[in-house]
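Example 319.
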Amino acid sequence: MIIKSDLTKAAALLSAGELVAFPTETVYGLGADAANEAAIRHIFAVKERPLHHPLIVHVAHVDQIKDWARRIPPVVYTLAKAFWPGPLTVVLPKQPHVLDVVTGGQDTVGIRIPNHPIAIALLKAFGGGVVAPSANKFTHISPTTAQAVWEELGDQVSLILDGGPCSVGLESTILDLTGDHPVILRPGMIASRGIAAVLGYPVAASGSVVRMPGMHHLHYAPVTKTKLMTSIALPGFLETLAPEAFPVAVMSYSTKIVSSSSVHVVKMPAEAKAYAQGLYHTMRLLDGQQFNQIIIELPPEGKDWEAIRDRLYKATATK
Ligand code: TXA
Ligand code: MG
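Predicted structure in complex with threonylcarbamoyladenylate:
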């Protein structure tokens, strides 16, 4: 059931161990009580997600970090001041009580304060931490509208709170603060440059592929065959396609190719923030139509685009 807002009911459902999907500024989350193992196992079942993949704990207030994490370096509060509520997740050593099903059996926990009025109101009404992976089936495109959550999960969720389209559109930046130096485990729209500016020193990006479902090939992927192509290669590629390869959809921010009966061109924003906001929604819409393939123009180089490029590479990784 999708509703605009009944936060009392939503919080009561969470307390009763049920699943509630809710909007955040990044993507819609599939929420459960972070202290309820059965409820969390239900998330994995609904998402069809492997059990060892850790979940992010969402809280309403910075004082709640210590309920979940320990050995919290002062830098966390500097980052919190700059970026929370907002699309940044910090990974810290976990408190002993934090369930293995939350952390994937690791001794660390990911935490963030989302920047959406409904998310914050829900977290406040509930009182505790809420684990929330993106509200989609494992490897599918993350939902950025309540309707998309419904298409992914339908009645498997007790309640879907509708907070309109997500304003950021890509999952949070994940920053590991458990080592000697901060490391970005998943790029997001809070870019490494912005974090470095707040910290006063550079941050590394992880080349590692462990622990991170987001690092798996074919994450965020449409079902339709999807290709990533440079601006230069794109027009020539269309010309080489056999007649039976059409119709195709093209997502492009710069192309001069015009739509025809066989080529449907979606003009994407040339500015990173607007591009990110619409990316999953556009991919989902095109995936739902009868295209033989989706061809995406590779966005520009540059720091503002790092998270977008990351998701596009994953969405187009070959099976
Ligand atoms: O923007 C977001 O982060 C959204 C919204 C709903 O908040 N949530 C989200 O959750 O993207 P999910 O489960 O789809 O992705 C969470 C990522 C996973 O790649 C997971 O491996 C990583 O966070 N993660 C969580 N806890 C971790 C930990 N302790 N160490 C390393 N990675 C962790
Ligand atoms: Mg996800």
